Amino acid sequence: MATELRHRAPAQTVDVPGPEILTGAKTIQPVVGSHPSGKEKHGWLVQILRGLSALMFLLTCSTAIHLTQLIGAPLYWVNRDLYDGYMTLTKQSFGLLIATLTHWWSPTTIRISGDASVADQIRKRKDGRVEFTFPERLIMIANHQIYTDWLYLWWVGYANSPGMHGYLYIILKESLKYIPILGPGMMFYGFIFMSRKMAVDQPRMAHRLGKLKTVHTTPSGTKYLDPMWLLLFPEGTNASRNGKIKSTKWAEKIGVKDTEHVLLPRSTGIYFCLTELKGTVEYIYDCTVAYEGVPRGEFGEELFTLSSTYLRGQPPKSVNFYWRRFRVADIPLEDQEKFDVWLRERWYEKDELMEQYITTGRFPPSPSDAVTKGHPGFLETEVRPRHRFEFLQIFVVLGVV
């Protein structure tokens, strides 16, 4: 992969528009001080109305989902499998909330490509939506660019066939569980909260991962595992100026090459997850994420804030995914130091992918004709629900009660 990237054609031969204007051999940077999404689309009055309406929608739907969770909570002491299935439905509701909220208040283009390992698992539907056919059990890893990365990756579960937005599990920092309504809701979802102290986190992770690898048996004697998409950000935090400084110091401390566009990954958490789940999950799916218009040396979190995205009408013009797949059996899990090297090499490849994106405005195109027919190496879509009023499903249980 790294060799392939190093021998790609120069940037000026790529005939596609990007966040920069490409003219011959010159790359013209965006005007300093301008926002990559252009001018503010709304005045202050509209911004206030947008903010109030988005907040009302989020709180109304989140409260309905949490009340639905509370209604079903007693199932925990009646039938554990029934309880888990019920909470899966409420998690699907939140995935639907995300898709609707983004479509209405923060529309953006999703541009997707990947290497040969996933080329036959991503296709364009006749209605313009993209459909993924990723397996029901996988570990998903990604570079962490801005706070809302998880939102777009949760949408991938929604767009998957079969839908996996009810089976997503995220490892995230402990402080998030104290957010009113959303925090308790995420605890019902079985998310794994980390204090970043392994002595404290390891027993928690072992308990939660133990549930995710529990083998069930049907009345006929057939054994099966529950669906699971486990999402991890090995960098531990989103890319920022302070995070980049810490990452550079860490590279110097352990004597390895630094990265330019991503933070160096930490292997302890993902190594523990892989060793605990070994034998129950076959693949790691790796997504490299880039946001259109972030200049070299800048950070997306400073440009695509909640205010600019949802109030001022300045969401990213495009969110770009490049997918790869790795077989767990081929990963060196017998020794953590070897795994650390393996993971770091994948992040160096990510850094090269990000370099190509910043230079050309595109990740490498997908190689498969099955995927790229009619779409020159890239599939484009948007985050949106299947139907305009699909979000009303969120209120079904409350309506029945």
TrEMBL record:
GO MF, any single term: acyltransferase activity
Keyword GTP-binding part of the UniProt annotation: no
PANTHER family per UniProt: 1-ACYLGLYCEROL-3-PHOSPHATE ACYLTRANSFERASE-RELATED, LYSOCARDIOLIPIN ACYLTRANSFERASE 1
Family: Belongs to the 1-acyl-sn-glycerol-3-phosphate acyltransferase family.
Keyword Cell cycle attributed: no
The protein's name: Acyltransferase-like protein
Domain of life: Eukaryota
Annotated InterPro entries: Acyltransf_C (IPR032098), Plipid/glycerol_acylTrfase (IPR002123)
Entries under SUPFAM superfamilies matching the protein: Glycerol-3-phosphate (1)-acyltransferase
CDD domains: LPLAT_LCLAT1-like (cd07990)
Organism name: Immersiella caudata
Limits of the Phospholipid/glycerol acyltransferase domain: 138-271
Keywords: Acyltransferase, Membrane, Transferase, Transmembrane, Transmembrane helix
Membrane-spanning ranges: 54-78, 150-172, 178-195
Cellular-component GO terms for this entry: endoplasmic reticulum
Single Gene Ontology BP annotation: phosphatidylinositol acyl-chain remodeling
